[in-house]
Amino acid sequence: MKQEISNRIKELRKMKGFSQKHVAENLFISQAAYSLIENSQNGIVAEHVVKLSRLYDVTTDYLLKGDKNVISMTRANGFTPFIKLSAHAGFIKNYHQEDWENNYEWFRIPGFNPTQNQRLFEVEGESMLPTILPGDILICQTQKKIENILDGSLVLVVTTDAIIIKRLKVNSDPEYLLLENDNENQLESLKIERENVREVMMVRGKITGVLVPHHTITSKGRINALEDALELLKKEVFRLNKKIIALSN
Question: Where would one find coiled-coil regions in this protein (predicted)?
């Protein structure tokens, strides 16, 4: 098996056109040490398997067992890490650990090309109804400069002890973030000290499994029609008032 692994990593290196020195530098070992691995004279440790899988953009299973599924689940291949509700606590606890994203499932979304620092989060609660429903999955992207976020933007905030989805309200106090709900029954604002904020992510979209009932769509259509009619009536009243004022002068 050692010989088979050595053959695979040697073949991958040649396919990429890398020198032994280049690969050794990526593994933080000497070229001589790497040469022994490639020639089956030394075994390969787990840490090197992981680094080689990233270097060659293949799965660790391919390196170790030669499995035909060689596509690595990375953002470069269109995959995004998914943090389920049950994984929120672990996400916060292991936030600063290297390679922590490897602990989560990765998914590819049709029509969506992920960029760096994008993740999928499952959400719960009713504080953001009707914008976000319990069980929706949010597509989020890190925003390094909070000052660049527009007032009222939908954000996911990672703090030292929670994951919060709200609307960010611009305020004059630089020491706090002011967050608000969409739910009319839960309109109280939330203030979070910035020193407790680890990351702020913009919500770029969502995946939902909830279908709107037909009667709800019909009701919404009627409401929209009434709103349009009311807007026309306001414009007509405004036009008539202008005429009356002109005649009075």
Answer: 180-243
